[in-house]
Amino acid sequence: xxxxxxxxxxxxxxxxxxxxxxxxxxxxxxxxxxxxxxxxxxxxxxxxxxxxxxxxxxxxxxxxxxxxxxxxxxxxxxxxxxxxxxxxxxxxxxxxxxxxxxxxxxxxxxxxxxxxxxxxxxxxxxxxxxxxxxxxxxxxxxxxxxxxxxxxxxxxxxxxxxxxxxxxxxxxxxxxxxxxxxxxxxxxxxxxxxxxxxxxxxxxxxxxxxxxxxxxxxxxxxxxxxxxxxxxxxxxxxxxxxxxxxxxxxxxxxxxxxxxxxxxxxxxxxxxxxxxxxxxxxxxxxxxxxxxxxxxxxxxxxxxxxxxxxxxxxxxxxxxxxxxxxxxxxxxxxxxxxxxxxxxxxxxxxxxxxxxxxxxxxxxxxxxxxxxxxxxxxxxxxxxxxxxxxxxxxxxxxxxxxxxxxxxxxxxxxxxxxxxxxxxxxxxxxxxxxxxxxxxxxxxxxxxxxxxxxxxxxxxxxxxxxxxxxxxxxxxxxxxxxxxxxxxxx
Length: 490
What we know:
The chain is mostly helical. It has 21 helices and no strands. It comes from Neobacillus cucumis. Keywords: Cell membrane, Membrane, Transmembrane, Transmembrane helix. One of its GO terms (cellular component) is plasma membrane.
């Protein structure tokens, strides 16, 4: 495949991945606002406690095999079917474990209603294997249009279900049922849109071969999931479900934007990088483009969200959620670092160095746990600040291997992201000053967002920011291609 064709595929895939993420992001945003207004912070804190155990189990079900399937060049039906049956076995075992340990988990948190909730929500583990291979097939072939249909369709149905149940007074059960419905619908849609079906094939040798790459990613993901949720586990035990709800909601807003946008880019970049893994210079160019593009989009969003956090929470969620604001400010700064984290890590995975990936995760988690232990005596806000401090340190750790692997230095990475960071900070200062106009809250918020977008784009245009002009030309090229293809089909 030549570079021009690869570029075309990447652009097309990015379009559909962005469409999927924007659709999901928009629906999730609306649903979360409605549910936050209808439900109590304690309800969200309670659901966080049980979803932690589902998230950890979900990592074990995937086992790093999805990434291994995408990374492997000559994957075939024997690989797909072997992983499918293995996933079913692992998911069944984990469901049984969670079913019987649910009473002990509930007793630990002194809330026996968690027993039934955890048992019902664990059903999503049994559904996951029936969509995991479909996701791998889509990722391998960059068929992100199908992912758009499944994700948005599932979220619409589950979101409506959750809102109806919340209005009907079902409380936290509205969140439980909506999550189960979301997984069920996503699985159902993918099963019929991705034309892959398991065959009566299984090979321990193929599983072993994939696992030799995937086990390092499994351990890395497990460490990351345990570490990411450790604070929530401790906050839920040491403080209260309400405080955990504020903490979670403060993280949810920046996460909603960053994970969707940055995740879109990285989902497309992994198969694209993997297909060029033997050309280190090409991989470096693609990683640089990923970091520059992600930073250009994410930096202004995080700066802007931090500046408007308080009025946004008041208007969207009501004043009962105001304790969320300090957490939101901290997590905006933390999530702004994600383009650096993920682009560097995807490059390491794409060239097949999952051993380095695992070593990095172990080092980062040891440092993170030390920071967490130190922060605990100082309270929940200091514990949140520990995430930011750990993130700054992790950015340097994640970038280090690519000094040698790709000859991509710290200085080069800083030069790539600094223009977007600088104009984002300038934009933030302008937007913050508008709060002193003392207009009606909704009017002032609308003005801040509008001025922020205008100032950022204007500054990018004035200084002829390379990423901005690249995105402009790429967008024009993509839509020209689509018009040409549409014309030829007529």
